[in-house]
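Bumping with the actual sequence this time:
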Amino acid sequence: MPSIAITNGAFSQAGAIVDTLSRATGMKVYTDQEIISLTSSHQNIKEALLVKILQGQTPTFNAFTKEREKGLIAMKLTLATLMGADACIIQGLSGHLIPETLLPVLRVLVITDKKRRIETALKGRLLSEKEATLKIQRLDEAALLWCSTLHGKSAWDPTLYDLVIPTDKISTEKALALITNSLTHIEIAPEKSQRLMDDFTLACQVETALIETGDGLTAEAQNGHVTVTINKNVLMLNKFTQKVMSEAAKVTGVTSVDTRIGKGFYKADVMYDFDLPSPPKVLLVDDEKEFIQTLSERLRMREMTTSVAYGGKEALSMVTQEDTDVMVLDLKMPGVDGYQVLEEVKAQHPHVEVIILTGHGSEEDRKRCLAMGAFAYLQKPADIDRLTETMKSAYEKIQDQKATAPETEMVTRG
């Protein structure tokens, strides 16, 4: 019987469906937390790091440590081990690590609209409406970031799944019938299923071996033959390809290797083909490291170039050394606070537009910041679309000022 990967929105009442399905099929259920715990114990990776990775966050010094890549492959190996031992139910975001080429997997999305999810959260009477809304928003954002990074799609995109179950329209009993009926249509011989699982495991082992070779390398395996996809642009492609093939061939079980160019290989060159404006250079300043790292990832998905500073002193140093268009600034920080940063930036770098983003502000703070030259004043948790639009408006102001600067100079000289 094929394994099942179930993704669900928070408070979409997926628990009842998963429990009923487990009893009906005899399959064991593994949640994201269980996948993380097993991976941590078997691969000696901290659980907290795996949680961050599963939320779509990239560790601060990942360019040097490759912690994200190592964590992803470690979780893949855990999934391969569990699914290879017996058909099971993977509930959560980790199921998205199972490659599309692995046929004996039924992929299911359990979801309903946000209003009903908030109502479900309130029934437990453990959360206020505001708390429930914020929790759902936070979990949805993590799912969005995770799936956007892996697939370039939303976590709720139906094309990622074989079956979509809206719990506001389908009962648990009907959902069970739909899933079990879908399982019967995935017919695969046990020996072929095991071979596919072996291929999955071998591909993971090859990706592990290639972590230090280069970024953006993914592998697929078929009966010992491995194909490595190069997803990022590299210099001296021929030499790099030979190195990739050499390292992959060292992995036990690999009989032959070839390479191919992935969709992301030419991405770095796209901007050179058209006369398009460069994206805004954004500096994010906040002492809440997890918050600012996640925000940075989400803005990069929207094609903004971001840098991060974890304090006021670091921000002032960075804005002096690096080109910065827009600064997103927290007010309450130890040492040099947001007010000091705003005052010095507007005095020394008046071309930089500053957007205040704080969770502890007041109307008096808003008026003070705007009077000091801040472009806008927003409070956490700010809607990402609103923040993005505010940043674009700030950048447009900068571009307009640059466009009119030569005319101003000519008038002055005249």
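The tokens above came from a reply further down the thread. The two ends are 83 Å apart (CA to CA).
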